[in-house]
Amino acid sequence: MPALTLNGHPVDLRMDAQTPLLWALRCGANLTGAKYGCGTGECGACMVMVDGQALPSCQMTLAQAQGRSITTIEGLTHDRSHPLQQALVAEGAIQCGFCTPGIVMAGAALLAANADPSAEDIGKAVTNLCRCGIYPRLVRAIQRAGRVMRGLETIAAAPAPGGGVAPTRK
């Protein structure tokens, strides 16, 4: 029963140690932000932070995660207030949303290490696949989030989860 720190809390997931971390997160911890995409670690839909580094959770077992700190999209913030989440909304860099959690985790790991990334830095660090083609807006959003993190800019807050307006019927 591998023990790890998940979103800041120590947990023992009572699953086989060879279970891929992705499935342990989704089925054992009921955290569904990390998505199954390719199963080979290439698409980035399952990206989480492991000890601060963005890694595909489909390529890591619970045994390999033992003793490590895992952060999922659910643990990044509770209210979508991370500068990158705000910048992605502000730049219109979210389309269908399937790849968004993985992109946020890869981008947040980059920004934690380098709050002033170049487009080349972003291209090397955020290799996630997006069928909607948001890449130019993604680069702008990550750079904008970096400016926010450095105190050079602010972003009007995006709506909180579940804060939408109900449609009216006529």
Report what the structure shows:
- 35% of the residues lie in helices and 11% in strands.
- It is built from 7 helices and 5 strands, in the order E-E-H-E-E-H-E-H-H-H-H-H.
- The chain is globular and about 45 Å long.
- The N and C termini lie far apart (56 Å).
- The chain has a 5-stranded mixed β-sheet.
- Helix 4 crosses helix 7.
- With 170 residues, the chain is α+β, with helices and mostly antiparallel strands.
Average pLDDT metric: 91
* Radius of gyration computed on alpha carbons: 16 Å
- Percentage of residues in strands: 5-15%
Biggest sheet record: 5 strands, mixed
Poorly predicted residue ranges: none
The topology string of helices and strands comes to EEHEEHEHHHHH
* Terminal Cα span: 56 Å
Strand count: 5
Structural class of the helices, strands and pairings?
alpha+beta
Q: Report the total helices.
A: 7
Order of strands in the sheet with the most strands?
A: 2-1-5-3-4
List the helices and strands and how they pair.
Elements: E1 3-6, E2 9-12, H1 21-28, E3 47-50, E4 53-56, H2 62-65, E5 69-71, H3 73-76, H4 83-90, H5 100-113, H6 119-125, H7 135-149
Parallel strand pairs: 1-5
Antiparallel strand pairs: 1-2, 3-4, 3-5
